[in-house]
Amino acid sequence: MTHHTRKARFVPAIEGPQRVGCYLRVSTGRQAESDLSIPDQRMQVHAFCAAKGWPVVGEYVEPGASATDDNRPAFQKMIERASDDDHPFDVILVHSYSRFFRDSFGLEMYVRRLAKAGVRLISITQELGDDPAQVMMRQVIALFDEYQSKENAKHVLRAMKENARQGFYNGAPVPLGYTVVEVEKRGARIKKRLAVDAVEAETVGLIFRLYRHGDGSSGPLGVKAVTCYLNEGGYRTRAGARFGIATIHGILTNRVYIGEWVFNRRCSKTLAEKPKAEQIPITVPAIIAVAEFEAVQATLKAHNPRTTPARVVTGPILLTGLATCTTCNGPMTLRTGTSKSGHVHKYYSCSTHGRQGKTGCTGRSIRMDTLDTLVTDHLVTELLQPDRLRETLASLWVLRAEKAGQVDGRVAALRSEVTGAEEKLTRLYRMVEEGVTDLDEILKGRLVALKQERDRAKAALDRIHIAERPPVEIAPELIEQFGRLMRENVTTGEIPFRKAWLQAIVDRVEVSADVIRIIGDKASLETVIAGAGSSAELGVRSSVRKWRTRHDSNV
Questions:
Q1: Residues 352-403: pLDDT tens digits?
Q2: Most distant CA atoms of the chain, gap in Å
Q3: Are 104 and 98 in contact (CB under 8 A)?
Q4: pTM, whole model, 2 decimals?
Q5: Which one-letter DSSP state was computed for residue 475?
Q6: CA distances from 29 to 34, 60, 220, 502 (A)
Q7: Would you say 170 and 180 are in contact if contact means Cβ atoms under 8 Å apart?
Q8: Which of 130, 387, 446, 476 measures 20 to 30 Å from 184, CA to CA?
Q9: In which order are the strands placed within the sheet that holds 120-123?
């Protein structure tokens, strides 16, 4: 009988000089900026190597990176170098295993990968060997590190949630148009909030105006056209880069610009949206009016080809894409029926009822020719008469005058900032020239800060002056000409042609059991009137109840 004896694995002790690659890491950017932990780790690691006579042949520093995963550039660079065929390292040296990894599975996986390359992982504060008992101890230490990391994350998130509930900024990327300002100090902690950046806010406002109304020489611009306009005009992002389509779309859909900032919306690792109960709303200063923002969202939705097919815009049915059922807010589409005499009747019918039956909507149906006539006749007699057009636009001009006053106030404030900064600079220069003070580092820093304040205010002024203000009022003859043109074009001609003119001033036609409401936007109406005398093309406007000023029935 043959006996097989199991041989114990023998790991030789480390003898002689070992070539060392050092890995130094801190978890947060704040720790990296304070420059405390990294120098301390470096000092201790180098002292450890000097005591053993080991040469340090490589150093990899990871400032502000979490060790819960391996998504760390310096870490990956070190692992790849340690695995090279020329075998540059004998040892990877860290202050503690938690600096290398805070995930037990990840730690063991990379320890084994390094071992295959003939490289040991050594902690200067937790020196362990390779026998089974010490391997188990390393794994236990890794489990405690992982647990501590998760507990710390839980407590940090709880503190950040409370900070957000009090309206303070937690360190997320600052949207274009805003800056971070210090509002108070609690012990060593500085509390910050988002505030409007005058220069960038002008750019954000311009983006919304271009998308909504155009640049004054054309109709509303699309997302791509807005992007081209900004890049050709020399506008740049905060990082100095050219704008991209995705960036502009993100700005147009970001609700922070109407004062709605949300903390803890998504999981930082998976980016999955968290339940609403876990999200913390924070009030911030608004840059865009709510009505303007919602109008832009409606236009974006209407222009989305997955939402609005091309046939809705150019199809042969006059009110397709405009007529909606008030019961379910669903669109009303064409339905046909044949009488006993063989005559085909056409109806606008609720599409939700057609797809789902009475469970989806109780249904709404009206003869196509009846609704077409009601809408066009009422527009002709009630809205498109010169007197009614002037009355409809009067309140818009009042609002515009208020906004112009606000702009004038902002211009005055910016001019005051420029003047104040230049006066302070002049006084400082005079003090240096007269020998009252020396141009030391503190004074140099103050001069730079004052110049930046002055230049920022000047840039904001330049952008305000570049933007052309629309006319305070439209000439009466142009209003009369537009009314006559619209009265003709919405009642006669081919359907697609009539439809284009109708969609230029009407956003939605709401059909209920006893009332039909025609919904439009005063600003869009004014834009179309102003462009009636030019070759500018008409565009489809968004859904905002504005020119039905008394909220009464239009039909």
A1: 888 777 778 887 888 888 888 888 888 877 777 777 666 666 655 666 666 6
A2: 117
A3: no
A4: 0.43
A5: -
A6: 9, 16, 43, 56
A7: no
A8: 446
A9: 56-62, 20-25, 91-94, 120-123
Token pair listed for 24: 């130094």
Residue 254 carries which DSSP code? -
Both structure tokens of 530: 């102003």
Q: How far is CA 190 from CA 33, 120, 161, 171, in A?
A: 15, 43, 16, 12
| Torsion on CA atoms 211, 212, 216, 219, rounded to nearest 10 | 80
Specify the 3-state DSSP secondary structure of 92: strand
Q: Looking at the DSSP assignment, which residues form a beta bridge with residue 331? A: 324
Query: Comparing C-alpha atoms, which of 509, 543, 497 is closest to residue 366?
Result: 509
Question: Do 365 and 333 touch, CB atoms closer than 8 A?
Answer: no
What 3-state class would DSSP assign to 94? strand
Q: Which residue has the tokens 């870490």?
A: 75
* Apex 481 CA angle, 472 and 319, nearest 5: 100
Residue 74 identity: A
Helix (H, G, I), strand (E, B) or coil at 171: coil
Number of Cβ atoms within 10 Å of the Cβ of 133: 8
Alpha helices, DSSP H, located in 195-307: 198-212, 223-232, 245-253, 290-303
Cβ-based burial of 315 (10 A; exposed 0-12, middle 13-18, buried ≥19)? middle
Phi-psi region of 241 (alpha: psi -120 to 50; beta: other; left: phi over 0): beta
Rounded to a whole number, what is the distance in angstroms from the first to the last CA of the chain? 106
- Give the integer Cα–Cα distance in Å for 422 and 280: 42
Contact 162, 185 (CB under 8 A): no
- Closest CA relative to residue 505, chosen from 324, 395, 391, 376: 376
Other Cβ atoms closer than 10 A to 63 = 17
In the block, residue with structure tokens 């019918």: 349
What tens digit of pLDDT does each residue of 405-448 get? 666 777 777 788 888 888 888 887 787 777 777 777 777 777 77
123: its two tokens: 């902690």
- Are the CB atoms for 140 and 182 separated by under 8 Å? no
Residue 241 has φ and ψ, to the nearest 5°, of -90, 165
Cβ count within 10 A of residue 287: 22
